[in-house]
Specification:
The protein is of the alpha/beta class. Strand 12 (358-363) and strand 13 (366-369) form a beta hairpin. The protein is built from 27 helices and 33 strands. It starts with a helix and ends in a 20-residue tail after the last strand. The strands form ten sheets. The protein has an eight-stranded mixed β-sheet with strand order 7-6-8-9-10-14-15-16, with helices on one face. Strands 2-1-3-4-5 form a five-stranded parallel β-sheet, with helices on both faces. A four-stranded mixed β-sheet has the order 27-28-24-29. It is elongated, with a radius of gyration of 58 Å.
């Protein structure tokens, strides 16, 4: 009876305790680990989590967690299922683990059937929603986004993915398919510890320098040893590890070789709360082992296991506030689900907290909130250089960490191309190595290397080309190809930054701005002609003026003879005179017209209205012609005019007589080939189809063809400026066709690009690049002295070559006048001689004697203005008269105002009177 009473009291007390508390005093949880995980850091983290929760009276003050741990062989799903059913039958209210994907799927199927919460901390590649599953491991989809953001930041274009386990390819498949702005060439290889070396050797042979490594943490030391054996541990290589435990790897051999190693971590050991938990965890050693490794850094697996137990406890705490939890009483045989399982899983799914792995938040059992720290290996240790989260993406806080400019003992391979004045070579026996080269780019490279901190080996590109893409095959050549194959670290020279090159290699900030212009031979001056004064009017205008002169003269003659007002009495005092005359004879008409044309006038004045109209309109015509001629004469004679067949690119495109071309496989050729402007497309068609080829292999060849004539060279303005300042026979035609810049080229994703860009900007701000430009472009000892008189704004002094023709015209006119005078004299003398010969008795002398006598008189310096008449003949004199030249001068007779005649006259002597006693009168034939 006392025993029965005691039992009633015990059950009554237990019932009262159960009704007043929502949670049972003891909650049993189960954990399943593989045999390899026995006494591992993951198991210790699980035990420590239970221990810490039980010790913390603020979380579950009236409830104690009790765990049941079972170990199963890996890949043995049968025994794993039996262990799980055994735990369920023992009344566990949640199951943790295992980490194996195959075992985890079977355990979840049991928990899902019995409505028991299943908490996991493994990577689950199954994207389907699982109702009773809570997974603290970030989804692989989000992790792939994180990896791709880093790849995009590093500008990787060729990547090798090395994975170990079979599901690694499935894990990274979304990374391979990730869309991006630039195309990424990806090589995928599976490897294990036995094949690490061969796979790495293959990657090295293909010159792939960026690798994504997905291997098991316990095999990582084999992979690292393969890197060292193949000497793939320098600054050229960059390794991105998918493991969150890079801090636990031994990277001592890689710290000082500047090899790039990057990875994410989930546990921020620098956080104060995390550090406290880890320190307490390190003191918790129930079996003599520690959950932390030798560096006091916890791995991601144990941290996630700790957080999963913490999440379960917080879920219980939340459930306690509104519901009661009835202990599970289910079994795999009965297949009856637990009534309280659904409520518990919902409260766990709504948990939000900050654990060892960062912020935790779930959606449908999947973790959607977490933070990854981006770590980068530097000379002394791994350093946090950024963060990634699903909401904000990657945030790089230390961009310079991807390029450590400390005391690097790095020698870069730099390729270049010979181009005056950028890079030139000394061909002497005393010059070796980098000392062989000199020029603008060599000086710039030297200054940049000092700013950034690296040594370099300078060499020439094998095919002597900058680099262009073959439109048919898509293959590159020149320096671009060398950078793409990573056979060089930098390319220095007059290398233009354009879209095509930027898509396959990287460029620094431009150190020089330029554009495409036209190099042409200096146009020759207009040849100076003796009759340059006729240039102001075209030849046809001169012919029209001559025709107008003849037409107006004839018109004046006809109109004057037709008009009665132009006829007048030559002797107005003789009223009975019936004779009238017209002053506008044909000769006078021509004289009147030419006089007004020469702006001199004449003694002929039109009287009739009709003739005055003709004269007036002719005067107006001559006013316009002479004014136009005078105005244009100054421009033609005082300003030197150049014969320029082309003025710009449109002129080149509009003609076919002058050939034009560019440098072969250069950016200028690419510009015309890819241009959408119709003028440049037309020029490209001409250059492409021109035979022989208008493309030249070097600038020197292009300059030579320009100097030979009938060729225009399309080249970059900086090089053109250098050439023009040194050869006065060359000039620039037109302005710039485009705008671009020169930059230092690097392989895609090179860590040197940003530092070199900063160095270039600093040199520009200091003015050192401008000083280098002045040194190599404007050296007074090299530049030629140009004759500035060719400028149209400056007039030239007139010389004999310009207006000498006027003197020739004058001399010719004088010569013609003398010839005409001689002709007149001869003609008149011959006429008189014929008359004298008709009279046999008349005295006469020969024509030559008379001409000689006249010439002697004309050349007499002190001769009189009067002279005897050339001939005097008395037609009525008797035959006996004799002609005697007078040897003295007679005073000029005064004859009613008539003009005086020469007084030396021939006198007839002994003239007998006629029959009437008068002396016969004589007709004197004389010249006025």
């Amino acid at each position: 009876m006392p025993v029965t009473k005691c039992r009633h009291i015990f059950f009554l007390t237990l019932l009262t305790f159960t009704l007043t508390t929502a949670l049972p005093p003891i909650i049993k949880i189960g954990a399943i680990f593989t045999q390899e995980e026995k006494d591992s850091s993951t198991e210790l983290a699980f035990k420590y989590a239970v221990y810490r929760i039980n010790r913390d009276k603020t979380l579950l003050p009236k409830t104690t967690l009790v765990y049941d741990i079972q170990y199963v062989p890996k890949d043995d799903s049968f025994h794993a299922s039996k262990k799980a059913c055994q735990q369920v039958q023992d009344g566990v209210q949640a199951v943790f683990g295992p980490s194996d994907p195959l075992l985890g799927a079977h355990i979840h199927s049991i928990c899902d059937a019995l409505d028991i919460p299943h908490l996991e901390s493994r990577l689950d590649l199954d994207s389907e929603y699982k109702e009773f599953s809570i997974n603290l491991h970030p989804a692989q989809t989000l992790l792939n986004n994180a990896f791709y953001d880093v790849i995009d930041f590093l500008n990787w274009t060729r990547v090798a993915i090395i994975y170990e386990e079979d599901y690694g390819l499935i894990k990274l498949r979304e990374l391979v398919r990730s869309p991006g702005q630039r195309e990424v060439e990806i090589h995928i290889r599976q490897a294990d510890p036995d094949s690490y070396r061969s796979v790495l050797k293959e990657v090295k042979t293909k010159e792939i320098h960026n690798l994504i490594v997905d291997t098991r943490p316990e095999n990582m030391h084999h992979f690292l040893r393969g890197i060292l054996q193949l000497q793939m541990n320098d600054y050229k290589y960059h390794y991105l590890f998918t493991s969150f435990d890079i801090e636990t790897f031994d990277l001592e051999d890689f710290k000082y070789n500047f090899v790039n190693m990057t990875a994410f971590r989930m546990v921020d050991a620098e956080d104060v709360n995390v550090r406290q938990v880890l320190e307490d965890m390190q003191r918790f050693q129930p079996t003599g082992h520690s959950p932390l490794n030798k560096t006091s850094v916890i791995q991601a697996g144990p941290a996630l296991m700790y957080d999963s137990v913490l999440v379960f406890a917080v879920g219980l705490q939340t459930l306690e506030q509104s519901h009661s939890l009835v202990p599970a009483n289910v079994s795999c045989d009965a297949e009856m689900p637990w009534d309280g399982g659904l409520s518990l899983i919902n409260y766990i799914n709504s948990v939000e907290l900050k654990g060892l792995s960062g912020p935790i938040e779930f959606k449908e059992g999947r973790r959607i909130q977490f933070k990854l720290d981006l770590l980068k290996l530097k000379q002394h240790s791994l350093v946090k250089v950024g963060e990634w989260s699903p909401a904000t993406g990657v945030n790089i806080s230390d961009r310079a960490a991807f390029f450590d400019s400390g005391s690097m003992n790095v020698t870069l391979v730099v390729i270049t191309i010979l181009e005056i004045p950028y890079v030139m070579m000394r061909y002497g026996k005393n010059y070796t190595g980098n000392s062989r080269f000199y020029g603008f780019c060599v000086d710039l490279l030297e200054r940049v290397s000092k700013e950034v901190g690296f040594d370099y080996i300078l060499d020439l590109v094998p095919d002597k080309k900058y680099g262009a893409q073959d439109p048919g095959t898509g293959e590159w050549n020149g320096m671009v190809l060398q950078l793409m194959k990573h056979k060089a670290d930098l390319a220095v020279g007059s290398m233009t930054i354009n879209y095509a090159r930027e898509s396959v290699i990287d460029f620094t900030k431009p150190f020089m701005n330029l554009g495409i212009s036209i190099l042409f031979k200096v146009p020759t001056s207009a040849p100076t002609r003796l009759f340059s004064f006729m240039n102001p009017l075209a030849v046809e205008i001169w012919l029209y003026v001559l025709a107008a002169y003849v037409l107006v003269s004839i018109t004046m003659f006809i109109v004057a003879r037709f008009s009665p007002y132009e006829w007048h009495n030559p002797h107005p005092c003789e009223l009975e005179n019936d004779l009238v005359e017209n002053q506008f004879s044909l000769a006078n008409s021509f004289w009147f017209t030419i006089g007004t044309l020469m702006q001199q006038g004449s003694d002929l004045n039109p009287k009739a209205t009709s003739t005055r109209i003709v004269g007036g309109i002719w005067w107006f015509f001559t006013l316009i012609i002479i004014s136009s001629y005078t105005a244009n004469l100054a421009a033609f004679l005082t300003v030197e005019r150049m014969i320029t067949p082309i003025e710009n690119a449109e002129d080149l495109a509009g003609q076919t007589d002058i050939s034009y071309g560019t440098l072969d496989s250069g950016s200028t050729m690419t510009f015309f080939r890819d241009s959408m402007i119709e003028t440049y497309k037309k020029m490209w068609r001409f250059m492409e189809n021109k035979k022989p080829s208008v493309f030249v292999p070097t600038y020197e060849e292009g300059i030579r063809r320009v100097l030979e004539g009938n060729y225009a060279f399309l080249m970059e303005s900086t090089m053109l400026d250098y050439i023009v300042q040194r050869d006065c026979n060359l000039t620039q035609i037109g302005g710039l066709l485009d705008s671009k810049g020169y930059g230092i080229a690097t392989p895609m994703g090179s860590p040197w690009r940003d530092k070199i860009s900063l160095a270039i900007l600093e040199l520009q701000e200091k003015g050192e690049i401008q000083m280098l430009y002045d040194k190599w472009w404007k050296n007074p000892g090299d530049t030629c002295t140009r004759n500035e008189k060719g400028k149209e704004s400056k007039a030239n002094a007139l010389g004999v070559d310009n207006i000498g023709g006027v003197f020739v015209v004058l001399l010719c006119g004088l010569a013609i006048a003398v010839i005409v005078a001689i002709f007149e004299f001869c003609y008149n003398s011959k006429k008189i001689t014929k008359l004298e010969r008709r009279v046999a008795s008349a005295p006469h002398q020969s024509l030559c004697a008379e001409m000689l006598e006249e010439l002697c008189f004309a050349l007499r310096c002190r001769g009189s203005r009067q002279r005897p008449a050339l001939k005097r003949q008395c037609s009525k004199c008797l035959p006996g008269t004799t002609y005697v030249p007078a040897t003295f001068d007679l005073p000029p007779p005064v004859n009613n105002g008539l003009r005086s005649q020469r007084s030396s006259m021939a006198v007839s002597l002994e003239v007998p009177p006629d029959l009437h006693g008068h002396t016969p009168s004589c007709d004197l034939d004389h010249r006025p």
